[in-house]
Design brief:
The chain is of the alpha/beta class and 319 residues long. Helix content is 50%, strand content 10%. It folds into two domains: 53 residues, no CATH class; 192 residues, 3-Layer(aba) Sandwich (Rossmann fold), CATH 3.40.50. The protein has eleven helices and seven strands. The structure holds cytidine-5'-monophosphate and magnesium ion (MG). The site of cytidine-5'-monophosphate has 17 residues, from helix 5 and helix 6.
Length: 319
């Protein structure tokens, strides 16, 4: 699906380390199979990503052929194993101080099952910023960027940029979803966010970063997928605002925003999606004790004061 989202979306190549690991073991497995003499099963250490994999030359349900140990020298296999393991360890060691590889992505997870996230939560701080449409998420994020050096990634902005990108195969789909206040399939949004995070870190030549992920996750599948393959969130900043106030703001913004969804009909649909689909995400994180709620009914200054107070409370003064 995503292979033709140039740069912006799925970089479907496998994680380099897992690729190296898998390739090394495939090579080793085929070396062993080619002898036709031995039946050898390779499995990876439990703490490796490929821990569940096993390569075997045994046919399913088959029994091993008779061993002819007296005709085979065992040491070449030991030598191959030692060399491959040594090479792999060297590569891992060299890579650990490098910025994230653009080709290292969650997509490895799709190929190889459950994976570790692309970014370590010890290096990367992710704060999800949620709230209904018009709750003031973007306004508060801009101030947090100014004062705390966060990188602000708005899922809606990334989707609009992808929609407008010439040649995007998702342009029409995104446009339809946005107009109807519906949720864009999570693969697209998760990939856009992951790529934007990676681009930010690569440009800064660092592994460490702080991201405000605005307007995301809006649906449970987005939440689960993102935390599984991109990065677990440290906290959810939830801006709580009554619908009438949000509607008033959106209609006001609609006079100049040029957005296809800042009109009465789309706003109604967006509110419904928010209540039915996005609020369960807030509840999910609330059960994990990750939600910090801020009343965003007052003006931006007051809301920001409350936001800073909450961040200090959670992260401390040096935040
Ligand atoms: O956050 P914003 O109001 O800019 O989002 C605009 C629209 O983009 C949403 O109504 C929805 O159609 C889409 N969107 C989405 N998934 C997200 C964020 C936005 O599908 N996580
Ligand atoms: Mg916004």
């Amino acid at each position: 699906m995503a292979s033709s989202l140039p740069r912006q979306a799925f970089r479907l190549a496998s994680s380099s380390t897992t690729t190296i690991r898998a390739a090394a073991s495939r090579r080793c497995a085929s070396t062993l199979q080619n002898t036709g003499k031995r039946t050898t099963q390779w499995s990876f250490p439990k703490n490796s990503n490929s821990g569940k994999r096993a390569y075997s030359s045994l046919p399913p349900g088959g029994s091993p052929p008779p061993r002819e140990t007296n005709k085979i020298a065992f040491w070449p296999f030991v030598a191959v194993f030692v060399l491959a393991s040594g090479g792999y360890m060297l590569l891992v060691d060299r890579r650990k101080d490098m910025p994230p590889n653009p080709k290292s992505t969650s997509s490895a997870a799709a190929v190889e099952g459950p994976s570790t996230p692309a970014f370590s939560p010890t290096d990367v701080t992710v704060i999800f910023v949620l709230g209904g449409p018009g709750a003031g998420k973007g306004t508060q994020c801009a101030r947090l960027v100014r004062d705390y050096g966060f990188t602000h990634l708005s899922a809606g902005d990334l989707l609009r940029a992808e929609q407008d990108r010439p040649g995007s195969q998702y342009g029409q789909l995104i446009q339809d979803c946005i107009k109807n206040g519906a949720i864009v399939p999570m693969e697209v949004t998760v990939a856009l966010l992951e790529n934007a995070m990676r681009d930010t870190l690569t440009a800064a030549r660092t592994r460490k970063g702080r991201f405000l992920i605005d307007g995301f996750p809006r649906k449970m599948d987005q939440a689960v997928k993102f935390e599984e393959v991109v990065c677990p969130a440290k906290m959810v900043l939830f801006y709580d605002c009554p619908e009438e106030e949000m509607e008033r703001r959106l209609l006001e913004r609609g006079k100049t925003s040029g957005r296809a969804d800042d009109n009465a009909e789309s706003i109604r649909k967006r509110f419904r999606t928010f209540v039915e689909t996005s609020m369960p995400v807030v509840d999910y994180f609330e059960k994990q004790g990750k939600v910090v709620k801020v009343d965003s009914t007052p003006g931006p200054d007051k809301v920001y004061e409350a936001t800073r107070g909450q961040l200090r409370r959670v992260f401390g003064d040096k935040f």
